[in-house]
Amino acid sequence: MPALILRYLLTRRIALLAVVAISLGVMAMIVILALMAGVQHFLVDHFRHTQADLVLVHEDRGAAQEAAIRHMLLPELSPQGPLVALSARTETLALLIPKVSPDPVFEERIEGVRVWGVDWSEERQVTPLNDMLAAVKDANFAVPMETRADPLGAGGIILGDALAAALGVTGPAGPGPHEVTLALARATTGADGKPAFDETRTAVVRVVGTISSGHAEHDRTVALMDRKVLRTLKHPNPARATDPITFHARIDPDADAAEIVAGLRQRQPELIVQTFVEAHRSELLAIEDQKRIMLVILSSVIAVAAVAILGMVWLMVKEKTRDIGILRSMGLARWRIVVLFSGYGLLLGAGGTLCGLLLGLLVAQQIDPIVNGLSALAGVELLNPAVYRFETIPVRFEADSIGTVLLIALGASLVASIIPALRAASLDPVRCLRAE
């Protein structure tokens, strides 16, 4: 059988074409799935360390309930409790506009952002804000070392580095404008019962620097201010503010987050508790959906190769019609005819799958020089560093993804070869012997 297949590969171009097509399809699927898995793992692993482990929201609202909520959570922070650190945060939507500058381009820029009101001393115990400050490489955007202990103490604002670049502002050391206009508005109900906004409150705030989480979309939409300053800017009477208060918590790295969440939900039913994965489920599911879509699209390449296998086996059945008649007249069972021809097609598919697997692993491991070479050849950056913030392209091989690719390739080859094999087994021996 192997000698027969080798001979047909050398004499039948369609057979060689089928092997090459399956190899390319399998290689493409393995490389793309490895890249998507690597990017997903990079984003989750890198971005996760910039976020709180748990998010806790109380059903009550307003600053008046904060002390009561803290007292309720105090047992969870004890040495025997599941929480290591806790910080309160308020969040509001706002517009940021660069302060009027000589450059008219900056005057036209406006960005909608989520402004986090934080207590710096608490927040730095829950999220690695110091690390995010240090991650800013450009000195024009960085918070000066001497003020990093509490950069918000003077009432300034910290922007995500991507947001600062979009607005055209820089930190104190930068050449550009260092101030932005913050516009806030509270949602209310108008006299007609329809949603409305009360008086918009604006303030010019000083940009004291930027942070970088490594996640471009996140850094484009986030800004940090002192919580008390933000409340004063937004509300005429801060003591009666009714903004929801969110508590962010850090847990022991070795602890089971799911078990801690289940315990908190049981002991504190008034709290809505979410893990990092639950809070960012939409982003994580989006990547999984993209992987499935790419798997379906690239499977079409293997389907085309499977058609070539079907044609090759069908051609072989036509050529060997008299031989089939002789074998059938000598008593060869029909199922052996099916095994003979379907085995031939399956081995073609297996050969292409194996070659594609080896090529895919090799190309994925050498993806950096390949992408750099293609970028230089095309004269454009295939992976924009402003979006994909990694020095080397992350690649991650997942056994289940590779197994799925192999099953798809082998399954398509088997289906394509078994159709003409069944046709061969159904031929009448007498008519086969009469065939020219």
Topology summary:
Elements: H1 2-11, H2 13-48, E1 54-58, H3 66-73, E2 83-98, H4 104-107, E3 111-118, H5 120-126, H6 129-134, E4 157-160, H7 161-167, E5 179-184, E6 187-189, E7 195-197, E8 201-211, H8 216-220, E9 222-226, H9 227-234, E10 246-251, H10 257-267, E11 271-275, H11 276-279, H12 281-319, H13 321-329, H14 334-365, H15 367-378, H16 399-425, H17 429-434
Parallel strand pairs: 3-9, 4-8
Antiparallel strand pairs: 1-10, 1-11, 2-3, 2-5, 2-10, 4-9, 5-8, 6-7
Describe the strand arrangement of the main beta sheet, using strand numbers.
Answer: 2-3-9-4-8-5
Tell me the series of helices and strands, N- to C-terminal. Answer: HHEHEHEHHEHEEEEHEHEHEHHHHHHH
- Shape, principal axes of CA atoms: elongated
What is the percent of helical residues? 40-55%
- Helix tally equals 17
Q: pLDDT average, as an integer?
A: 76
List keywords for this structure.
436 residues; two-stranded antiparallel sheet; 11 strands; 53% helix
Architecture overview:
With 436 residues, this protein is of the alpha+beta class. The chain folds into two domains: 2-45 and 284-434, no CATH class; 52-276, no CATH class. It is 53% helix and 17% strand. It has 17 helices and eleven strands. The chain has helices at 2-11, 13-48, 66-73, 104-107, 120-126, 129-134, 161-167, 216-220, 227-234, 257-267, 276-279, 281-319, 321-329, 334-365, 367-378, 399-425, 429-434, and strands at 54-58, 83-98, 111-118, 157-160, 179-184, 187-189, 195-197, 201-211, 222-226, 246-251, 271-275. A six-stranded mixed barrel has the order 2-3-9-4-8-5. It has a two-stranded antiparallel ribbon with strand order 6-7. A hairpin with a 5-residue loop joins β6 and β7. The radius of gyration is 32 Å and the shape is elongated. The relative contact order is 0.18.
